[in-house]
């Protein structure tokens, strides 16, 4: 019986279900509460009523109908809006989650289901020894890939048992905060110069991590594909629309896992979402470099990104006949020679992959007089009926523009045409074997893109002009300190492509123990016989055979970054005023409007020219303003507009990083730039 005085105090009954493992104890409890009782008081009342002696510190209240956590324990029930019809769930904040890593290995670990995904990913990366967690996020598998997996499981005669690495005994995953200074730059690591894997003493840097040396090796080493059938069984997005479906699965970084319908022991993909790999350092980043390499490798094998046959053979040579073999051999060997360490450090200091990361340009290195290029090149303009007009001209490259004249003598007068390359698309058109060194320029004009090809005579000329075009497209001149490294990078990539067949390579006995079909996409396994593929991969292998393992992985990553489609995430959108759907490509420095039928770029907008962007949450429309009174607006059809909004804000956030600042992230700034004001 309840006294009349209790009724008079506006009290009411609140139903709370407790998630505990004691079968003999009831799970549903009715608490008599008032609206001015705070959340902490509700939990205290509940624990007193449960009468089970255990640690309740990780428990919190989950409001089922509203899909939200009640984490502000000082707030009252009235302030939270909780009334008698609310169904509350008293459950742990940290739960088990299965994560498929870029190397296709699955780890099982405890993750916070109540923290924002951005914070949860940061904690996951501490467990896995991956620095720069802001570059990664969690992705739901697309329905198409799940359908293919179910079909594969149904057709297989033997039950599929997945090898899962269990990392559930971690202090971080138990809800304790990681120690500060985890990735201090003053560390002097002991590492294997060939594999880049941290040696035993290195493991002690990561005192919060449950990774043993064996587990660390699983994450830091590349493991070859077991059979060519593995590729055929995996989902491959064929069209831009298929790729857009995959990108629809990114979780919202500003909300928790539980708020987004993720349940305990669900499987998610941990992937590099933002393609700006900042401050890659082989001393500390063995796992990170390997996982970036693996994401690149699978993107190429599954044809998520297009590349030429020549490029595919380089990728195959690097991963098949080099990285795989070194990974297998280095597990059984111990390389501790000091001179080798020095050589590797010297080689890798030139290979640090910093893609638009921080301020690369140093004012002292830049020169006041902007250099220019002047040379004889051939101009190619596509014509109707597939005919091309190829004519030699005298070209002058200055600032961010290319001008061309009839000949060198007329260069003092007015040019025939001046092409402003700021904001243009630069695509390599190269076939080293055929001595073809072309640069394809897609220059924005009022009604779309103006297509122009420049033909160079040799590798050195191509590297200088290509580097100048790439910088000009970003609004930089050749005075920028990144010009010469860019020339060097292009030349080293061309050198890898430049191979000739030697009789020793054909008779190489090592070629027998590798299945070449495992290292190229299905398109090429259908085109060539196994022996032909093996011979061609061995040709390409000659130029990379002397590389240490970490350098080979970094070269692979650089070659991936050189592909025209690198870093593009696709979404199907409808632009304001348009009657048909288009594809929007989001990259680290620009947005590209792409024709959904042909795949051709229509217009490019650079982030550097962006003044502001906002989202109308009622009609789910993204509106962006650029310089020179250019404005666009679109609705997203293949995903929630919040995903594109977060992509844009995320890339702008990452562009603020600098090597000078310490490695703590401004989480508030990230959420200001990416969080929705819904």
UniProtKB/TrEMBL annotation:
<keyword id="KW-0965">Cell junction</keyword>
<dbReference type="GO" id="GO:0005178">
    <property type="term" value="F:integrin binding"/>
</dbReference>
<dbReference type="InterPro" id="IPR019747">
    <property type="entry name" value="FERM_CS"/>
</dbReference>
<dbReference type="GO" id="GO:0005925">
    <property type="term" value="C:focal adhesion"/>
</dbReference>
<comment type="similarity">
    <text>Belongs to the kindlin family.</text>
</comment>
<dbReference type="InterPro" id="IPR040790">
    <property type="entry name" value="Kindlin_2_N"/>
</dbReference>
<dbReference type="InterPro" id="IPR019748">
    <property type="entry name" value="FERM_central"/>
</dbReference>
<keyword id="KW-0966">Cell projection</keyword>
<dbReference type="InterPro" id="IPR011993">
    <property type="entry name" value="PH-like_dom_sf"/>
</dbReference>
<protein>
    <submittedName>
        <fullName>FERM1 protein</fullName>
    </submittedName>
</protein>
<dbReference type="GO" id="GO:0042995">
    <property type="term" value="C:cell projection"/>
</dbReference>
<feature type="domain" description="PH">
    <location>
        <begin position="378"/>
        <end position="474"/>
    </location>
</feature>
<dbReference type="Pfam" id="PF18124">
    <property type="entry name" value="Kindlin_2_N"/>
</dbReference>
<keyword id="KW-0130">Cell adhesion</keyword>
<dbReference type="InterPro" id="IPR001849">
    <property type="entry name" value="PH_domain"/>
</dbReference>
<dbReference type="GO" id="GO:0007160">
    <property type="term" value="P:cell-matrix adhesion"/>
</dbReference>
<dbReference type="InterPro" id="IPR019749">
    <property type="entry name" value="Band_41_domain"/>
</dbReference>
<dbReference type="InterPro" id="IPR035963">
    <property type="entry name" value="FERM_2"/>
</dbReference>
<dbReference type="InterPro" id="IPR037837">
    <property type="entry name" value="PH_Kindlin/fermitin"/>
</dbReference>
<dbReference type="Pfam" id="PF00373">
    <property type="entry name" value="FERM_M"/>
</dbReference>
<dbReference type="InterPro" id="IPR037843">
    <property type="entry name" value="Kindlin/fermitin"/>
</dbReference>
<dbReference type="GO" id="GO:0007229">
    <property type="term" value="P:integrin-mediated signaling pathway"/>
</dbReference>
């Amino acid at each position: 019986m309840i006294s009349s005085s209790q009724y008079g105090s506006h009290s009411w009954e609140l139903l709370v279900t407790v998630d505990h493992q004691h079968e003999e104890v009831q799970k549903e409890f009715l608490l008599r509460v008032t609206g001015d009782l705070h959340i902490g008081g509700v939990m205290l009342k509940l624990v007193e009523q449960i009468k089970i002696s255990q640690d309740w510190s990780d428990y919190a209240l989950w409001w089922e109908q509203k899909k939200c956590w009640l984490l502000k324990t000082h707030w009252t029930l009235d302030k939270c809006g909780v009334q008698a019809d609310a169904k509350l769930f008293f459950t742990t904040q940290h739960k088990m989650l299965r994560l498929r890593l870029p190397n296709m290995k699955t780890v099982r670990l405890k993750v916070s289901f109540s923290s924002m995904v951005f914070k949860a990913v940061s904690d996951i990366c501490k467990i896995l020894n991956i620095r720069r967690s802001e570059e990664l996020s969690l992705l739901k598998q697309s329905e198409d890939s799940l359908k293919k997996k179910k079909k594969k499981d149904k057709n297989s005669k033997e039950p599929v048992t997945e090898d899962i690495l269990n990392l559930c005994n971690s202090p971080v995953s138990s809800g304790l905060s990681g120690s500060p200074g985890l990735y201090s730059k003053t560390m002097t690591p002991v590492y294997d110069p060939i594999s880049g894997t941290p040696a035993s003493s290195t493991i002690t840097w990561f005192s919060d991590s449950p990774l043993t040396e064996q587990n660390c090796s699983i994450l830091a080493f590349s493991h070859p594909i077991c059979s060519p059938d593995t590729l055929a069984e995996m989902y491959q997005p064929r069209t831009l629309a298929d790729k857009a479906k995959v990108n629809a699965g990114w979780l919202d970084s500003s909300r928790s896992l539980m708020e987004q319908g993720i349940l305990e022991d669900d499987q998610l993909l941990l992937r590099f979402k933002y393609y700006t790999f900042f401050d890659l350092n082989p001393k500390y980043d063995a796992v990170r470099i390997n996982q970036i390499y693996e994401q690149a490798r699978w993107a190429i094998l599954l044809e998520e990104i297009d590349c030429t046959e020549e490029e595919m053979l380089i990728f195959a040579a690097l991963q098949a006949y080099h990285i795989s073999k070194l990974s297998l051999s280095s597990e059984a060997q111990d390389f501790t020679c000091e001179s080798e360490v020095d050589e590797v450090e010297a080689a890798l200091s030139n290979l640090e992959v910093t893609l638009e990361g921080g301020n690369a340009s140093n004012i002292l290195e830049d020169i006041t007089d902007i250099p220019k290029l002047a040379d004889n090149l051939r101009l190619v303009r596509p014509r109707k009926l597939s005919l091309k007009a190829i004519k030699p001209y005298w070209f002058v490259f200055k600032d961010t523009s290319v001008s061309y004249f009839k000949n060198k003598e007329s260069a003092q007068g007015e040019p025939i045409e001046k092409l402003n390359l700021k904001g243009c698309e630069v695509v390599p058109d190269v076939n080293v074997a055929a001595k073809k060194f072309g640069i394809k320029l897609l220059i924005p004009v009022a009604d779309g893109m103006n297509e122009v090809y420049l033909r160079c005579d040799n590798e050195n000329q191509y590297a200088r002009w290509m580097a100048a075009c790439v910088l000009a497209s970003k609004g930089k001149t050749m005075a920028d300190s990144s010009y010469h490294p860019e020339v060097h990078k292009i030349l080293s990539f061309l050198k890898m492509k430049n191979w000739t067949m030697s009789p020793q390579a054909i008779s190489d006995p090592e070629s027998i123990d590798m299945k070449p079909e495992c290292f190229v996409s299905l398109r090429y396994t259908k085109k060539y016989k196994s022996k032909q593929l093996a011979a061609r991969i061995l040709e390409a292998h000659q130029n990379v055979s002397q590389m240490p393992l970490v350098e080979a992985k970094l070269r692979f990553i650089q070659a991936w970054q050189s592909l025209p489609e690198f870093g593009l995430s696709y979404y199907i959108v409808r632009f304001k005023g348009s009657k048909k759907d288009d594809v929007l490509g989001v990259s680290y420095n620009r947005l590209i409007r792409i024709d959904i039928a042909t795949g051709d770029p229509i217009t490019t907008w650079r982030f550097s020219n962006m003044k502001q962007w906002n989202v109308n949450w009622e009609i789910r429309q993204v509106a962006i303003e650029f310089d020179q009174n250019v404005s666009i607006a679109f609705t997203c059809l293949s995903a929630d507009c919040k995903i594109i909004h977060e992509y844009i804000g995320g890339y702008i956030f990452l562009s603020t990083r600098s090597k000078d600042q310490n490695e703590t992230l401004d989480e508030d700034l990230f959420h200001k730039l990416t969080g929705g004001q819904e």
